[in-house]
Amino acid sequence: VLNMAVIPAEAAAQLQTFQETLDELCEDIEKMLQMLSPSSAEPLPPLKRAQALLALANAIHALNMLLMRAHGKDPEQMTQIHKEQERLAAYKKKVAKAVSGDELSRARKTVELNVDAANRFISAAIPD
């Protein structure tokens, strides 16, 4: 428990702002988790869901690192942090690969051959 009489007013105001921001972040994370739930009223498509879950995991990982630093621990010295970073990097690559595959498949769908036009072109190119 902090003794607010010892803390300068400016620092106390910054701590209050930090606490309010942290509370808002917790509310946003709860909303996101509810939205990502498979039982959600409007479930996201699998690729969007994977991107959102990866973003959420990265945000929570960053918050965990901040918490460790606030407790005076060096996150770079902890093997769990390195394992989590490697895991997130691997999933980031998987999601990026899925996104590029999805974009490629959508690009392929837009190219269609107009058979009638192709036949007219071929007929015009072949001399009688």
Summed over residues and divided by their number, the pLDDT gives a mean of 86
Q: Termini separation (Å)? A: 96 Å
Kindly name the structural category: mainly alpha
Order of helices and strands: HHHH
Explain what the structure shows.
- With 128 residues, the protein is mainly alpha-helical.
- The protein has 2 domains: 1-43; 44-128, no CATH class.
- Helices cover 74% and strands 0% of the residues.
- It contains 4 helices and no strands.
- Helix 2 packs antiparallel against helix 3.
- The longest helix has 31 residues, at 79-109.
- This is Nuclear nucleic acid-binding protein C1D.
- Plays a role in the recruitment of the exosome to pre-rRNA to mediate the 3'-5' end processing of the 5.8S rRNA.
Could you outline the blueprint of secondary structure elements for this entry?
Elements: H1 9-36, H2 46-70, H3 79-109, H4 115-125
Helix pairs in contact: 2-3
Write a brief structural summary.
By secondary structure, the chain is an all-alpha fold. It has helices at 9-36, 46-70, 79-109, 115-125.
Comma- or semicolon-separated keywords:
single chain, 128 residues, DNA-binding, Exosome-assoc_fac/DNA_repair, mainly alpha
